[in-house]
Specification:
The chain is an alpha+beta fold. It has seven helices and 15 strands. The protein is globular.
C-alpha cells in the first residue's frame, strides 16, 4: 500500500494550474484507497506537539470537573445530549475517552430546543484550563477552512462547479473530537472475551481499541499524536498501519460521499489497535448543515434517490455507535428517512 502524501498549499490561493495538479492527486487518492495524508496547511502551527498538548489538557481535569462535561447518557443530571465528553465503555467494540465539540466553540450558533444536533457543547471555563477554548476555536476554524478547500478540490475533480458543495455547509455542524485511548487490559472487556479483540501486528499480539468501521459523512481530518495505532484496510483486505508524520493530517472519506458518487470515492474501513502505550488523536468531521438537502449529484451514473436532510442522515447513522446508542428516540426526523444504502454500516 502506498499512501499518497499531498502538499495542498496551492489550494489556499495558488494558481489555477497548480490547483488542477493537486485536484488530480486528491481525486486519485479518494477513488483508490480512500485515504491520504496532506501537508501545507496555512496554520501549520496548530498541528505541532505543543498545540496538541494544549488540546489534550481536557483529560487532565479532576474527575468531578469531567463529570460536569459528560453527555446525559453518561451523567443523567447533565443537559447535553449529542455534544460533550464520553467515558470508555467496557466491551470489544470501542474503548476510548473523548469529547465531541460543536461549532459553538468557534462562533455563535442557533439552538433548536427540539434538535439535539444543534445543542451547545459543555466546555470548561477559561479559569479551569487557561487558553484551551481559544486553542480549540482556532483549530476548529482551521479544519473548517481545510475541509472547504478539499471539497472544492473534489468538486473540480468530479467536473462539477467549484462551489457545488458550498451550500451544504452554510451552517455546518462539524464535530471536533479529541480522543484518548487508555491502555487495554483484560478487565476493560467486561463480560466479553478479550480474545475476540486480539490482532497481530508485526508479529506481536495487541487488542483492538476501535473495531473496523467506515465514517458516516463526508470528510474526516485526523491529527495523530506520535503513537501508532491507526490502520486502514487495503484493496486486498489486509490491514496496513498509517505512518506517523508531523504537520500532517490523515484524510479519509465517509459513507455518504461514497454513496453519492456511486462508489467512485471510497469510504474505507479502518480500525485502531491499542499498543502498549496510551494514545491520543484529534479528529475533525467536516459536516453539512442540519437542514442541508442531500440529493443526487449531477455526474455520470449518478445514484437516484429521494432527497433527505443531512441531520436525519447523521442521526440515523451516528446513533448506532456505542457512544450514542441510547439517544435515537430523542430526535424526530425533519423529512424522509434516508434510504438503507446510505445508513447501513
Amino acid at each position: 500500500m502506498v499512501l499518497a502524501v499531498i502538499d495542498i498549499a496551492p489550494l489556499f490561493g495558488g494558481s489555477d494550474v497548480s490547483k488542477k495538479k493537486i485536484d488530480q492527486q486528491i481525486l486519485a487518492a479518494a477513488t483508490s484507497l480512500g485515504f491520504m495524508m496532506v501537508t501545507g496547511l496555512p496554520d501549520a502551527q496548530l498541528l505541532t506537539p505543543q498545540s496538541r498538548d494544549q488540546l489534550k489538557e481536557i483529560f487532565q481535569l479532576p474527575n468531578s470537573q469531567k463529570r460536569a462535561l459528560l453527555r446525559k447518557h453518561f451523567e443523567p443530571a447533565n443537559a447535553s445530549i449529542y455534544r460533550g465528553m464520553f467515558e470508555p465503555q467496557p466491551g470489544v467494540g470501542s474503548y476510548k475517552e473523548g469529547i465531541d465539540i460543536g461549532p459553538d466553540i468557534a462562533r455563535e450558533t442557533t439552538l433548536d430546543p427540539n434538535d439535539p444536533l444543534t445543542g451547545l457543547t459543555p466546555l470548561p471555563q477559561d479559569d479551569v484550563i487557561s487558553g484551551w477554548r481559544n486553542q480549540c476555536s482556532s483549530y476548529y476554524t482551521c479544519m473548517e477552512r481545510t475541509g472547504n478547500a478539499l471539497m472544492q478540490s473534489l468538486a473540480r475533480g468530479l467536473q462539477l462547479q467549484e462551489n457545488h458543495f458550498d451550500n451544504l455547509f452554510n451552517n455546518p455542524i462539524s464535530t471536533l473530537r479529541i480522543l484518548r485511548y487508555p491502555l487495554r487490559s483484560p478487565e476493560t472487556f467486561g463480560d466479553k472475551n478479550p480474545e475476540e479483540a486480539e490482532v497481530k501486528v508485526d508479529g506481536e499480539v495487541f487488542y483492538i481499541s476501535t473495531l473496523p468501521h467506515v465514517d458516516s459523512g463526508i470528510l474526516t481530518l485526523l491529527l495523530q499524536d506520535g503513537v501508532p495505532g491507526l490502520q486502514v484496510q487495503d484493496g486486498d483486505g489486509l490491514w496496513q498501519s498509517i505512518p506517523l508524520a508531523e504537520a500532517t493530517l490523515v484524510v479519509n472519506f465517509g459513507r455518504l460521499l461514497e454513496t453519492l458518487t456511486s462508489g467512485r470515492i471510497k469510504a474505507t474501513p479502518h480500525r485502531v489497535v491499542a499498543r502498549n502505550e496510551e494514545r491520543f488523536s484529534i479528529a475533525f468531521f467536516y459536516e453539512p448543515s442540519v437542514d442541508a438537502l442531500i440529493k443526487p449529484l449531477p455526474i455520470d451514473n449518478s445514484l437516484k434517490f429521494e432527497p433527505f436532510y443531512y441531520g436525519d442522515f447523521v442521526w440515523e447513522f451516528a446513533t448506532r455507535f456505542i457512544e450514542q446508542r441510547s439517544i435515537k428516540h430523542l430526535r424526530q426526523p425533519r423529512g424522509p428517512i434516508p434510504e438503507r444504502k446510505f445508513v447501513e454500516p
